[in-house]
Structure formats: C-alpha cells, structure tokens
Specification:
five-stranded parallel sheet, Rossmann fold, 30% strand, alpha/beta, 15 strands, 7 helices, OB fold (Dihydrolipoamide Acetyltransferase, E2P)
Length: 257
C-alpha cells in the first residue's frame, strides 16, 4: 500500500525534527525543510498529500508559500495545515481566506497534529470518491436532473467541495462563470453556464427568472407586481429583489398555482 506523503516546512530545527520523527514513526513518507522557498520546490516535486507549514519564517513565510502553491493546478488542491504561535483573529482569517484547511497553535500535542492530518486525509478520500461517482454519473447520463436531496461535486479553485442542492438559494451568471449563493451566505464561483445549470437542477424547485439568474423557489419570501407583466421577487435573507423578465413571468405564475 502506497504511503501518504507529508511535507513539513518549519524553520525551527527542533520542532521540524520532532515532527519528522513523529510522522515517520506513524508510517508516513515525510519530506521536510527549513524555508518556504525550499518547501515550494519540494511540494512541486513530490506533490504531497498534506503540507504542514509554519507561518513565521525568514524569507518566504507561510502565507507566501500557500499563495505560491495556489497558482498551480497540481499543488492547489493539497490540504494545508498551518503551525503558528500567533492567535490573532486577523491572522487566522488571512490564512483561511488563502485556503488553509486547519491551524495548530504552538505548543501543540502530538495527538493534535495526528488527528488533524487524519481528518484532512479522510476528507480528501471521501471527496475523491464523491468526485469519481459524480463523474461516472455524468458520463453515463450527462443531462440527468438532480433531485432536491442530492449533493453535487464542485471543483472550486482546484479544491473539491460538496454542495447540497437544497442549500442553493440562487445562481447568477458572471461572464463565463456562475456564482452560487448558498444558505450559509457563501458565494461560490464555478465555470458552468446558466443553461447548463438549468438542464441539471430539479425544475419543480429551481426556476430561471431571466437570462442570467436561476432561483430556488423554496426560498421565495414574497413577490410584487411590477410593470409590463414583470415581478419583483424577494428571497429569504437576500436584501435586493430580483426582477423577473416578461419572458419568464408566465412560468413563475404557473409554478405558484
């Protein structure tokens, strides 16, 4: 069985050697280095399953390492665990915005590191399995519509994500992309057209209200008549209403009967 590969980037020699020894004894294939620059080289060369990286380092720090690796399709999906002595909220937010998967605060226990690594590996394998199943389903019947209780696999910035169909509030076109707004107020940008979404979403729940927008009718809070047979539709937890063009207003009225 092939060992999971872990890259450790840490400029403190004692900490780095202790982590290397711990992970090696746990059966992992371990690569380690003392600088961000070398870490980027090793990541691109070995494509580890997980990267454990200190934040405060001379030269290229942990933020710069993650930023650099996010530029490559090959290294972008690798789960990234930060090691830090900093506990400020802004620092944590910065790492999460860059795509960090977890934070461990120094000093940490060996079990904390091992549990974090196992959790990331387990999640990655689960998402990979979902991806394979979803791809097989789409190849077999690419125009099959999802049910409201289904979940859909999305490749977002090189990282796999699972989104529940019922949690999609609306989808809006943005140039060659579409933005998905979910119930947790997240906006997810994906490379898929509005027409493609219309073909796979359950049409009893999702309605295209004009050329650039599809809404989940379960989240309609109220509707108001507007001019020229158009409507204003207000969705729950969304401040601005959506205008339904005349072309699609008939279908909406039919759905509301």
């Amino acid at each position: 069985m092939k060992k999971n590969r872990i890259l450790v980037i840490e400029d403190d020699n004692d900490v780095r050697e202790n982590i290397h020894t711990l992970l090696h004894e746990e059966g992992y294939e371990v690569y380690s280095c003392d600088s961000g620059e070398k870490g980027v080289e090793l990541a691109k060369e070995h494509l580890p399953n997980i990267i454990v990286c200190d934040i405060l380092m001379n030269g290229m720090d942990g933020y710069a390492v993650l930023t650099e690796l996010s530029k490559s399709k090959k290294t972008r999906p690798i789960p990234f665990i930060y090691l830090t002595a900093k506990v400020e909220r802004d620092d944590i937010r910065k790492g999460m915005q860059l795509g960090a998967d977890d934070y461990l605060f120094k000093p940490f226990k060996a079990d904390e590191l091992l549990q974090s690594i196992r959790a990331r590996l387990k999640k990655r394998e689960a998402l990979k399995a979902e991806s394979i199943q979803d791809s097989a389903k789409q190849k077999k019947n690419p125009k099959t519509k999802y049910n409201i209780d289904d979940k859909i696999f999305l490749n977002i910035s090189g990282k796999p994500h699972i989104v529940a169909i019922k949690d999609i509030v609306y989808i809006a076109a943005e140039n060659q992309y579409t933005s998905i707004k979910t119930t947790d107020s997240k906006s997810i940008l994906v490379r898929k057209s509005i027409s493609a979404w219309e073909q796979i979403l359950p049409d009893k729940i999702f309605l295209r209200i004009h050329r650039a927008t599809i809404i989940n009718t379960d989240y309609i809070a109220k509707m108001e008549k507007w001019y020229n047979s158009s409507f204003l539709v207000y969705l729950k937890e969304i401040k601005e209403p959506f205008v339904i063009s005349k072309r699609y207003s008939t279908q909406l009225r039919r759905n509301q009967i």
